[in-house]
Protein 1
Amino acid sequence: MAPEAFALLSPPLKRLLHETGISKPTPPQVEAIPLIAQGDNVLIIAPTGSGKTEAALLPLIDRMIRNNDRQGISLVYITPLRALNRDLLKRLQTWSSKLGFSVEVRHGDTPAKDRRRMAVKPPDLLITTPETLQAVLPGRRMREHLRHVRSVIVDEIHELAGDRRGVQLTVGLERLREICVSGFQRVGLSATVGNPEEIALFLGGNQPVKIVQVPLNKSTMYKVEYPPPGEEDRDLARRLYTTPEAAARLTLVDDLVEAHDSTLIFVNSRVNAELLGSKFNMMDRKIMVHHGSLPREERVRAEEAFKTGEIKGLACTSTLELGIDIGSVDLVVQYMSPRQVSSLVQRVGRSGHTLARTSHGVLVTVSTEDLLESVGVIELAKEGRLEHTNIHVGALDVLAH
């Protein structure tokens, strides 16, 4: 019988877990920590809130701090979003102060003085993006520091695998492998996908990767709404310069937000996010907007306002599908069909963030076709039948770059 996962960790890590109130490993941690601790390449596929980030970090940081003679950068953590970098840095700064290692973020927004400092004195753990990894590899000093990398974690790997950023990532990892003194271990973190073997191949290249897959057994409640307009909706429609049907949907979403402490309202486009934000502003409701085209300062302000309870609702696009820290979420509203089963599972999974809590999602539909599609997507989600992530191949533009 395999040893209990946390028993494999050194006393400093065990003390840290005890101080943070973590006494028992989650299912992904039980399966993944022993494999990672023995040096295997591992792909962890698990739902939101299952502790997969810690499953990857704990054994790799443990190995890093046991090495008193470490040089350069030992561990690289790659995420697709700068916001994820910021969140991870906040979390790891507490760990680093107690465990005696250094951690820094390097991406496009990093000031020049911080880049120069890292070139002179590199961190033990570097948090970065695929693009920045490619950008720093040619630099003489950073290249020397990266020669000592022992482990690479790729977070939200399913988001990267399906487009050119994923191709850029694989090229960057192979370039890193070429310069590393002794090769490096690869760990990928993914939401539930329909083709885990292909994602594992994407992560490992020509190296074997073991898959740790936690089934979708978390309790999830779905509800579909197609609200008919009433007389009050017709009055509201005149005030908002919209149709009675749209006013009925806005009223329903408004009622849902008011009935909960914190609600994410997912839409499928930035235009719809801005449109909802504008209409709720006309209704004097405290609902902010979050999408990738907004300046970083506005996105951070919206995240903090939601996290602190200043606002109860946030209209957002897929930018908040991923694991950005926005605090507790009571309810997820999906405005119009999400089109994809994987998107629905990921979005609704943002509510009731831990495995012990039930996730609640309400799909607000805009037509009979939208209603039928939403019902179909929910049924597929309940059956665990998710789309395959199409791995991008033959990216000649990346080759030319």
Protein 2
Amino acid sequence: MAQQRAMRADARRNVEKLLDAAREVFRERGLGAPLEAVAARAGVSIGTLYNRFCNREELIDAALPALLAQTLGELSERAVAASTPWDRFAAYIFGLSELQAGDHAFSDAMCSSKYASPAVEKVCRAGLELGSRLIADAQADGSLRADVTVDDLFTALWLNACLADHGGPQAPVVARRQIALLLDGLRSVGQRTLPGGAAEAAAVAARLMRA
């Protein structure tokens, strides 16, 4: 009996080590990071990983949804504390951009359904729903151009994720520059008619989500 308890305790420790390692590796390298890297970080064999988690999706679902929700919640609190609808919208966009640069797991969860579980997709939906509300508020007070949709926001985040993944050490600074340029273009002052329409933006956003 004592030997069985020791084995169960050892198994629990291995699970916790794997979950901690998965959070670290996925943040550093994205949700597509090799599972061998997760096992190595945890100090266990790849066989041990697959004994505990049947596949990548099961590991992601065990390791990340609560952490992703907490990260999004903290950003949301900071954004909605800003003083004006425009400032809240801008704070949210800048915050998402910065998270994408420093947390590739969050970036992948927000911008791709490739490895998404229902729990991860729930976090993504919550992020886009808040974006929709902030867009509506900024449009209602006249600070944000009226033809912007949440699909435009998603496409901008998807492009920013590419910059975060491939831009190297200077990517975070350049990302802030690109987001600043984007926000200047989204202001209602001096706006021009946009090429394309909301239907095209929605179709492209849906295609990018599946990429």
Protein 3
Amino acid sequence: MVHNVDVPRLSAGSVKLHTRQFGTSLKMSSMTSEEYKKSVMQAKEHILAGDILHIVLSQRFERRTFADPFEVYRALRIVNPSPYISYLQARGCILVASSPEILTRVKRREIVNRPLAGTVRRGRTEEEDNMLGNELLMMRKSVPKAYNLVELGPNDVGKISKPGSVKVEKLMDVER
């Protein structure tokens, strides 16, 4: 695993995209509010029954825009400089994605699972950056979430790995 790699530090900026041509309201969601609430209740039932340990419920929102997808990608690189950002154009589909976490990487025969348990803005100085990192480690919400993710990661990876080969190398590590 690679940690504390010296990468160029990019600060967030701002970009003006002409996305409001059709108004600011969302035009379509993948489910109604009632359907989402029903999904939450079903998820709780599955957790209580022991069928699943963890679930992330989400829904898709869409709105019409004439913004160029590659310009959206370029804008994301400026306003949210992320180490994991991608632009994929295939027949009938364009994907623009940005994430601060690696989540899972497979390289050769090694699987790295590194989800984020919390985030905080970067400091303006190295001292402020370290202070914010220490505060993140102490946040009551981040600590239980980190332990939950550490429990889930080896459980998931262990299903396809050699017995005894899964190990947690670092716990509660602040990545910059």
